[in-house]
Design brief:
Chain lengths: ~475, ~240
Amino acid sequence: MSHVGHDEGKRPVLTAHPLQRVGAYALAFLGGAHTPEHLVPSAFDDAVGVLTDDAVRAALVRDTKHDQGFWLKASMSFFPNSKMNHPSNAKKDKEEIRTTVRSWRTCPEPGAWPEAACVLCGRAAVGFYGKKDVPLAESDVYRNTTPRGHQGLALCWPCLCCFYALPYGCRLTGGPSIALHSWDERFMARTVSRRVERSRQFIALGTADPRGGSDRETIALRALRDHDDRLTAGVELLVFSNNNRGQTLEIQSMDQPLAEWLRLSARLPARRRGFRALLRAHARPDRPGIVGLARNAFRSTELIAGACARYLTRHLDRGVIRSDSADLAELCFSLVIEVMRMNLNEIDEIRAAGGQVAAWLTAENSAGKLREFNATLKEPKRMRHWLMRRNLDALLDSRISTEGPLITEEQFRLLFDPEVEQAWFHRQLLVVSVVQRLHEQGFRPADRAEIAAELAAEEQDQPEDLVFASDEKES
Amino acid sequence: MTATESPDDVSPNAPPTIQALEVTVTAPLVSVRNPLYAGVQVALPCPPPSTVAGMLAAAAGGWGAVSLETRFAMAFHARGVGVDLETYHPLDASGKKADPTPRERGFLTGATLTVWLTDEIGSWERRLRRPVWPLRLGRSQDLVRVTTRRVSLRPGPGRQGSALLPEGIAPVLAGTLPAGTLLRLPTAISPDRQRTRWDGYHFDASGRSDLLIGAEWSDEQGRAVVPLPPVHPARLPAVV
Ligand SMILES: [Zn+2]
């Protein structure tokens, strides 16, 4: 280990900074390594060489509106006013541009290094850097956030190069960039390497990704679906711009249990049918379900469960149970158990109540009775009254083979007791389980067929959802 | 942590408990910035250990008065979050007068921070009763209210709730992870701010997780009490 000093000076290490970490993986992948630890010093130099060559090529385009100006334009959101995209480049000749961009991307001579440690990894810093080199850092003319005597952030050469490599690990839009981050290292290696492959194409060609950047949350869902291993951490979506007109950063987080549930739901054959229904439950005429699902996933798990419940009950007023109801209901319960970690005994109670209500409705076999039940959903008082009424009916009706009351006291408590914090949610689950059981029991009132045909015609899957739910992967 | 046998617990079968100082810090408004992004003001969902450590050091009168071994366990809960505009006054290195600019800044409302100290209890009790420097959590205009009481901690697992848990501490239930988000937070920052120690922590902002955590200690209400890594800046390695 005699050459440790030299080697270590050329190896990106993973730090606490999400953007540095995305860059470290991108740099590793550009050097042909799977992870930053596996990047050998010569490959590190090669990878930095790729970054520099691409920067020089973009700078020589000079005009962001040129048909090969995409990387030059995008670089303004990462390294504004740098040698790569400085307004004065318009007047410089080619050789001058080459020289200045190369010198900007060259490690300073050790004699010029300040006596400071890299703020991210603690190794010797090679200089001080501001927002021109490090997205979302303070402008290097300001001193509010840097230690005394530092003109900007003290960074070592590998950490600085991670920021230079960052764009390769991002979805580039020309405007704000999108990075997916996780503390799960295997996920990072897999996701960033896929992203680097795509970004390299657009950077090399100087043209934009034809997909644009409109559906940023779905980037996370696609990455989850493509990941083979159990996730050990949640994922964060960082949308940021280091533009001169104003730095912006938006962080959206998805916790590990939800990320893992989404990953499994989109991958496991047993859950795939339910997942298609989940996409349908989130689709709108003007928006694919995958976009709605991804947005809900970053906002709140409860929104996903709510969308399921709404979808399952959407046509109950017409006496219709959709054919995908049972699959979606089952997926919804897995969400409630695995992600929302609801008490299993309580879920069993609610499902039992749902089963009893479904049995009663099946025995009645009337769309009208189902409509009646459906009408109580928005008013707990009415639902409570309806259930109590049916409780009495059921006790008096010999056609119904249920033992004991339709709804037990404990079930009533879970659904209606003001002391039960989640009672409203329990009522939603009751309906989910009623619909699930009705589907299982083949609930088919006489007036159903006509309406079902109408629905089939008006509800087509969105093309984007079909692609996502099929086996075609993003290429 | 050095365990001090509690003289109150004399039942022969009860496991030995230790005495701890439970410090409760409340504030209507708390704002803790993520130090990684200087150009934008991103708020953290809880104060990092370094901030809490800084508050303790302020009470003591500076790090010189604080033992190198100082460790604590903490829990944090905020009732709400919000964003407002603050005037940012750039300090221009060239000596020019820079224009103040409005910037969005996140904050937390109705915050309660609980800190458990098990060493030098009497000394910390005195220091927090009469702090040398004013005590704050991330915003200079908002002071905090501090109360202390002595509690006994039992050995064994406790409920996650709003505890801040060092990465690697797992629920008793095998194969599960603590609820909430994994965060990288500063544990210690050198006085010249050149060096920062970062560690991974699990934190559930909802505070609702009933997961039983394989903690060393739990408090009288069954909450997990997990000591965090040492926070004294003098323990940070020197610049290499
Ligand atoms: Zn570094």
